[in-house]
Structures are given as structure tokens and as C-alpha cells.
Task: structure prediction
Amino acid sequence: MGIIYGLQKHLFELRSNSPLADRILSRIADICTDLFGEAETDLVTLHHKLEQRTQQLRVQDELLKAVPDGFQSGVFTDEQPTLESSRLIDWKEMDTEPMIQAAQDLGLDPKDTNRRIWEKSAVLHLLRLGGFLDPKKRGLGIGVGTESLPFYLSRYCDKIIGIDKYESEIWQSAGMSPEEVYESASIPFERERLLFRDCDMRSLEFQDNEFDFVWSISSIEHVSAIDEYLRVYEEISRVLKPGGKAFITTEWNLVANNPVYAPGLIALDTVLYPWLVAQLRNLQPVDRLNPTQKRNLNHVMATKFRDPLGRTIRPSVVNLSCGSFLTPVLLIFHKPLSSETD
Result:
């Protein structure tokens, strides 16, 4: 690693006068990022990451013992993903008018390469497309923190409730009172239609069939066990009205032969996603996800931007623990009407 660091330092000195040095430097940074999760690291950091990976593999082994075989077939589709379908992140969508408008409505910059911009814009676009911005509709946001979606939706819906563990000591929103969440708003909202509550997503404190739609932006994966993860989806199904929909962004592991089931993080993959779909009785995917489709994966892996140091970065892919890659995935579920299940 000392050799790599020394080479990087020398190349930084040359890069202003050498396009080749710039390309080599970017490639070294890519390799270090792909392997270790950061462009510059040392042996102590690497040793710590390897210890974390060993622990993750122990958790993974225990999980896989409880996952039946045979769920891979019959779940995926060969259909091309569209803006309205369940799919992995596609950064090119941020150049389309509906996504640009959605980002701007939320007070976000559509040219910002933060992955959350795509996630939030996609959910708002789908809510608008599905007719959920309606004065008769009620919506629930899970793990909303201080995001702008509940504020925006309160201007159009009958009631919007946003929940998070505001009293937790772990999350960014920890220690906030509901009043402080209101004060964080960066866009106009309707106070009387918006309520924030401290609530555990594994046990939603709401009546059955209470909401027309539910959404969550990269929150539901933050549980410590597979049964808790399933419980979150079951609770979403319970509080949704028949005919209601859930729009969920979460993590997808791109490396099928190197899954990540870390303590405190459940990432879907080609084993866990079909298993989840098979377990859900009253919540069905709107369409079948196909994460193995070349077009889908190529758009993820080819999306590269440069940071201020000239290194290539992938805003849509998060490196996690020595070679496993997570990327955002958008899932769309609906709760069937009683006539659909009879």
C-alpha cells in the first residue's frame, strides 16, 4: 500500500502536465476504491475491514441456512425496465423532464450526483403518476428524517405522517423533537396536514388499512435480522389500504457470489429478493425485478463522475467491505383488493 500511495503522490505532481498520468491516477484510485472502499488506505484500515468482512460472512452463513433453495426461478423478467418499473438506479433518468421537475419540486438540484436525488425524485414522480397527490389520499413515510418529501406531499394530500426514530441515539435525526423537524423545512408545507412521530418501523402504531400509499427512502434495510426485515414489509402491508401502493428504495448487492448481510444492514440480492416476495402474502410486486439484465447493470457500473482530485467516482454504487457493491434499487408493491385474492 505504501508503494501505491507513493505512486499516487508522484502522479499528482505530474497530472497537470500529463494526460497519461491523470488516467493512471484515476485507475489506481478506482482499484483502491473497488478493493478497499476508499482511494487511499493503509494496512491498519485494511486489517480492520477484513475483520469486519469475516464477521459479515458469519452472519451470512447463519442467514443462508434459513433461506430455502429454489427461489431464483420464476421471479425475474426479461422486460426492459422503465421509469415506472421496479429497477436498479439509472442515472440517465435524471435528464428526463419528469425527474428534473420532481427534484426541483423537492428543492433538490437534479444535476447533483448524490444517489438520494434519484431516489427521492423517482418516488415523487411515481406518486404523481399514480394519482396519489390528491386531497383525499393519506400517506405514510418511513424513516423520513428531515427529507423534503413529506413537506411537499402535505400540500396536496389529506394527511401525511412521517416517522423515524427521532429519540434514537444512532440516526442523523437523533434527539430531534417533532417541532424541530418542522423547523428544518426548506420548502413550503401545510402544517395542519403534516405530522411527524417517533415510531419503530417494525411495529407501526397505526390502524389496519389506514394509508393509501407508503414510501421509504433507503431506511428499511437498517435492521439487524432477516425476520425483522420481513416484519417491516408485513407492517407496511397491514397499514396499506387494499389497492394501495408502497414505493421503497433500498440496497441491492451487485456481487451475487459475495453477498453482504452485515449486522444492522440487510441488502437484497438474487437470493433474498425472491425469498422476500415469496413470503409476502398481502403485498405483491407491481412488476418483477430483473437485476441481472445487462442494460440495467451496465447503466449502474458505467455511471462515473470525477471528484475534485480527478478520481472517478460512482455516486450510484457504494463499496462495502472488500469487493461487495451495493446500489440503490426502487421497489414498487401493491396491496391487492379483496377480489384479487379471493
